[in-house]
Design a protein that fits this description.
Strand content: 5-15%
Shape: globular
Helix content: 40-55%
Strand order of the largest sheet: 9-8-7-6-10-11-12
CATH architecture of the largest domain: 3-Layer(aba) Sandwich
Radius of gyration: 24 Å
CATH topology of the largest domain: Rossmann fold
Structural class: alpha/beta
CATH class of the largest domain: Alpha Beta
Order of helices and strands: HHEEEHEHEHHHEHEEHEHEEHEHHHHHH
Number of strands: 12
Largest sheet: 7 strands, mixed
Number of helices: 17
Number of domains: 2
């Protein structure tokens, strides 16, 4: 009789334990003693609340959370999500990732996250407003919100509308606080928001991948030329992040060969016009049956089709141990949170695929949130002080050059040269500089650690080093 040896059961990690596992892999490449590392890992404050709200003719008890992971820098920063999947473990994990994300992109915040366990689609706007305002008042009561304490932002299921309700509630409970607008970010522009926030995460994905593709040494290793132009790109998810990432890739010469949504996908090796696909979806309710493209039955199938760059911008764990070996992309950009499992990470690392981790690549949102916070504290719109000065200086220089050369530039070139920076120009510039600088910090860490380590571990190493130094300099250890 043949003896069958049972395979050892694969360890199951909760979301927060998974983050801690990644942390531990990177911690050994840092110089900090175990006590400091344990402090960095730990969630400093966890606030679970339940509060009653009248919905229709009955009272519902709403479950909600706010977690402040790290106080090494204040305020804490992180979004608020509305979802039936919200639980304490998820919020703790997302808060911890915010700490590391902020450290990687040099944004001076500690990490935080919030969540309300509801399905927002089941409530009217009036009912959502009541829930949001009550949640905000609970945060105020426990001192879990404020421009210098904890600054929420939109996340899954929330947006500018919910942020405007929160800031109004906060201001009404804190009369006379001159910086009240800075208690949240992601607000409408009319309520103190910043131009460029809506597209910030998708644009940050584009800037990050562009910088990866501009490093000739790394492109040579995977058999690609430098630059974005001509690269074949597949994007999963056409929500806010996926759409804007696709738009910027398309506008800058990449070939969008595949798109995937929950209803299925499209593939065309000659390329898809992202604007026409979006119009098609608006008119039909889905992306399939787009003229000239091949229908793909499921979103998962699109991920495995030929491309140079794959951008999963929708769900968690879409690339895992069962499909990672069939992925043909040479660069994977994690626009979503956690689209790769640890097993997929190992498989793709062995294949030599460059996996650009989410904790860096989707940090465009928190980077521009930082700009909004600065705008609210300074009480002046970016560009207001120097736009006209720049235009006048540029006009003087152009006239001088034209006078000396005896030649005039064309109207298009003239308008570009004379243009002084608007708020959105400065936001884009700051975001691009942030993504470029942060990528090279991660790459340098990767090179210094050596072979066998992926970019995710390098990113964690960079983050741990920055947070550890901050804790040391605080002098809080007797």
């Amino acid at each position: 009789m043949e003896t069958v040896t049972a395979k050892p059961a694969q360890a199951h990690y909760s979301f927060f334990q998974g983050v801690e596992r990644s942390f531990d892999l990177a911690a050994k490449y840092t110089r900090f003693e175990s006590g400091i590392l344990e402090q960095i890992k730990a969630c400093n404050s966890v606030y679970q609340m339940k509060f009653p709200v009248r919905i229709g003719d009955k009272i519902e008890v709403i479950e909600a959370y706010r977690v402040q992971h790290s106080h090494h820098k204040l305020p804490c920063k992180g979004g608020i999500r509305y979802s039936m999947d919200v639980n304490q473990d998820e919020v703790m994990a997302l808060a911890s990732l915010m700490t590391y994300k902020c450290a990687i992109v040099n944004v001076p915040f500690g990490g935080a996250k919030g969540g309300i366990k509801i399905n927002p689609k089941q409530y009217t706007a009036f009912e959502l407003e009541k829930i949001t305002r009550r949640y905000a008042s609970e945060l105020v009561k426990k001192n879990f919100i404020g421009p210098g304490i904890d600054v929420p932002a939109p996340d899954y299921g929330t947006g500018a509308r919910e942020m405007s309700w929160i800031v109004d509630t906060y201001a009404s409970l804190k009369p006379g606080e001159v910086d009240a607008q800075a208690c949240v970010t992601g607000k409408p522009v009319t309520q103190g928001g910043v131009r460029g926030r809506t597209e910030a995460t998708g644009l940050g994905v584009y800037y990050g991948i562009k910088e990866v593709c501009d490093v000739a040494e790394d492109m040579k290793k995977i058999g690609l030329t430098t630059g974005i132009e001509g690269k074949r790109v597949i994007i999963q998810g056409l929500g806010n992040v996926g759409y804007h990432a696709a738009k910027y890739f398309f506008d800058n010469g990449a070939i969008i060969v595949g798109l995937a949504e929950h209803e299925g996908g499209l593939y065309n090796e000659k390329g898809l016009d992202i604007y026409k696909v979006v119009e098609h979806r608006k008119s039909t309710g889905h992306i399939q049956n787009f003229p000239g493209a091949k229908n793909v039955p499921t979103s998962a199938d699109v991920l495995e089709m030929p491309c140079d760059i794959l951008i999963p911008a929708a769900l968690e764990n879409v690339i895992n141990g069962s499909n990672a070996a069939r992925i043909q992309a040479k660069i994977i950009g994690e626009a979503a949170n956690g689209p790769l499992t640890p097993e997929a990470d190992e498989i793709l690392n062995q294949k030599g695929v460059i996996v650009v981790p989410d904790m860096y690549l989707n940090a465009g949102g928190v980077t521009v949130s930082y700009f909004e916070w600065l705008k609210n504290l300074s009480h002046v719109r970016f560009g207001r002080m120097d736009k006209r000065f720049s235009e006048n200086q540029n006009t003087f220089l152009l006239k001088s050059v034209e006078h000396l050369t005896g030649k005039s530039v064309g109207d298009t070139e003239r308008s570009l040269i004379l243009h002084g920076p608007d708020e959105v120009d400065l936001v884009y510039s700051g975001l691009e500089d942030t993504m470029i600088g942060s990528y090279h910090e991660i790459r340098e860490a990767l090179l210094s650690i050596g072979s066998g380590v992926n970019m995710r571990t390098a990113a964690f190493t960079v983050a741990i080093n920055k947070v550890g130094v901050a804790y040391e300099e605080l002098g809080i250890f007797p």
